[in-house]
Design a protein that fits this description.
Helices cover 49% and strands 19% of the residues. The protein is an alpha+beta fold and 470 residues long. The strands form three sheets. It has a five-stranded antiparallel sheet with strand order 2-1-5-4-3. Strands 7-9-10-12-11 form a five-stranded mixed sheet. Strands 6-8 form a two-stranded antiparallel ribbon. The two termini are 77 Å apart.
């Protein structure tokens, strides 16, 4: 810079040019704003002014002419204007620098990338979260540096209502190769034509939260399994009866087949019919065992398209003996065709078994009225755009004490002497995880009415079910 000032001074003083070379001092002042502070710019301005005046004094000391004076004034004005512009630019740069420094105080990772996905800003939080120093991150493509993965629940920006903002969960890779989950928020800056020019991305690490959620889901799965086994233990007599019936029928038809074959003239047609009945009963027994194994096994939820009528059909054979032993009549009112839902067959069967067994036990001590278990299914419109599949289970038992009505779905709350208080709590968790709701109200005359509402299959997002209410 000093060399430039000296060259301009020499040309302005000794070169026989009839132009105001001092105007070039303005370039020196503007250039100084890139690396000097306010005082430094003012000092450069003062040096340039003194050089301009000194050059004029040397060249025009013997005569006074208006032309050289005017050119000198023009040079001084150019230096002054350049100084003001340099000071303003320096002040704006310092303000932006201070604001950028504030971003380093947050624990969130913040970085900016241009329209080509190249990183142009990288704060201290990003250095800490990802392990990449600012010098190494700047100029890199964000998608290549972080190896961004988009979970199924994170849709592309083109599918959101506001194309200038996006929020979701992402998986990034640190410098050491470890993957981290983040909640990511994007804000897109656009030009006057609406074209994106830069994107600021703010990320908060949630890896520990995800690990805690996985551990909680595993613990809940274990608890659900224990509850299912406990429920199946209570239904042992009913299950044994359900299996023994087809086995006894197989034996009876087998004996009948032998008698038809041992006749002087074997009746092959009767034998064929008996064998067909044996095969049908064998399949029935196999179906019962399959349902029991599904309820008893450990495993992750497996969501498929089904109906609530299918769940009722799975559960009724398992509780028939229990209803018979407690003199409970069954009334079914199932809508056909039933609306499809998206859910796990085993988990939903567990919910219905819990509610049915509770209803049977609630009616076991009542007298003077019919013990009736009513199960109905129907479709219900929540609003003009949402449809629900509804399953209602009503009994004529002792009903729900208003004092505890708000606590019946709370964990460890039970009215049974030998109960764990987990059945209804787990049932609510399962139903809500399917995007639905479960509620309990007094029955029409006696007992209680439990209502399960699930979104129909057309309304379900398999990756992230929305909340519904009856």
């Amino acid at each position: 810079m000093l060399a430039g000032v000296a060259v301009i001074f020499a040309i302005d003083t000794f070169a026989p040019l009839d132009i105001e070379i001092a105007v070039l001092y303005a370039v020196v002042v503007i250039a100084s704003a890139d690396f000097l502070g306010r005082r430094g710019i003012l000092l450069v301005c003062a040096v340039c002014v003194l050089q301009t005046l000194l050059s004029y004094a040397i060249v025009h000391s013997e005569s006074f002419q208006s032309g050289p004076v005017l050119r000198a004034l023009i040079g001084l004005c150019a230096i002054g204007i350049a100084t003001l512009a340099a000071l303003r630019n320096r002040a704006a740069a310092e303000s932006l620098s201070d604001q950028a420094a504030l971003l380093d105080l947050t624990h969130d990772a913040i970085f900016v990338r241009d329209r080509n996905d190249v990183i142009t800003y990288w704060n201290a939080g990003a250095e800490e979260l990802y392990g990449w120093p600012r010098k190494e991150a700047l100029g890199q493509k964000a998608s290549d540096l972080l190896k961004t993965k988009y979970p199924p629940s994170a849709g592309p920006m083109e599918q959101i209502d506001d194309p200038s903002r996006w929020q979701g969960e992402l998986v990034h890779t640190r410098r050491d190769g470890l993957e981290v989950w983040v909640v990511s928020r994007w804000a897109v800056q656009r030009d006057e034509r609406g074209r994106p020019i830069a994107t600021m991305e703010t990320n908060s690490g949630i890896t520990e939260q995800k690990q805690a959620e996985d551990a909680l889901n595993h613990a809940r799965s274990q608890l659900e399994h224990v509850t299912r086994i406990s429920t199946l233990g209570e239904l042992t007599a009913s299950i044994a009866h359900e299996v023994n019936q087809p086995l006894a029928a197989i034996v009876t038809n087998g004996e009948a087949s032998l008698r038809w074959l041992l006749r002087d003239e074997p009746n092959i047609e009767e034998v064929r019919r008996a064998v067909e009945r044996m095969i049908a009963n064998g399949r029935r027994a196999s179906d019962v065992i399959t349902r029991l194994r599904a309820l008893a096994r450990k495993g992750n939820p497996s969501h498929t398209v089904l109906t609530l009528n299918d769940i009722v059909a799975d559960v009724i054979p398992l509780v028939e003996r229990e209803m018979h032993n407690n003199d409970v009549a069954l009334k079914l009112d199932l809508q056909a065709p039933a609306p499809p839902v998206f859910g796990d067959r085993v988990q939903l069967a567990q919910v219905v078994i819990n509610l049915v067994v509770n209803a049977i036990h609630a009616m076991s001590q009542t007298g003077g009225r019919t013990r009736l278990l009513s199960i109905s299914s129907k479709a219900s419109l929540e609003d003009s755009n949402s449809q629900l599949a509804v399953l209602e289970i009503e009994d004529t038992g002792t009903g729900i004490d208003p004092k505890i009505a708000s606590d019946i779905f709370t964990a460890f709350h039970t009215t049974k002497a030998d109960g764990m208080g987990m059945g209804l709590s787990i049932s609510r968790t399962i139903v809500e995880s399917h995007g639905g709701s479960i509620s309990a109200t007094p029955g029409d005359r006696w007992g209680a009415l439990f209502t399960i509402c699930l979104p129909v299959q057309q309304q379900v997002d398999a990756t992230a079910a929305a909340e519904f209410s009856c």
